[in-house]
Specification:
The chain is α/β, with parallel strands linked by helices and 105 residues long. It contains three helices and four strands; from the N terminus they run H-E-H-E-E-H-E. The chain has helices spanning 12-20, 33-37, 73-84, and strands at 26-29, 44-46, 65-69, 90-95. A four-stranded parallel β-sheet has the order 2-1-3-4, sandwiched between helices. Strand 1 (26-29), helix 2 and strand 2 (44-46) form a beta-alpha-beta unit. The longest helix has 12 residues, at 73-84.
Length: 105
Amino acid sequence: MGFFDFLKRPDMGQELERFAQTPGALLLDVRTEDEYAGGHIPGSRNVPLGTLHQAELPADPETPLFVYCLSGARSRQAALILRQAGYAHVTDLGGICNYHGKVVK
């Protein structure tokens, strides 16, 4: 394990495929409402980081959650918050800036 391994992100394409194949999983976009309206990954739900503690999230802590933002900083924070809230299966996808698939507005 290298010193900068904490900076490595999972391959977003592979992780989105895993999301699509995971029953009951949620894809959370933690960017602002304006950023989300400007283009987001199909099937994602906008829950801005600043409202995460107030958001209606699944009651079941076993619900798989996949989280992304613009560059990866907010998704990292959101993943930490969700894990601290008791969610057992949280995947930080990093930033949509590394996404090369379809975006919807």
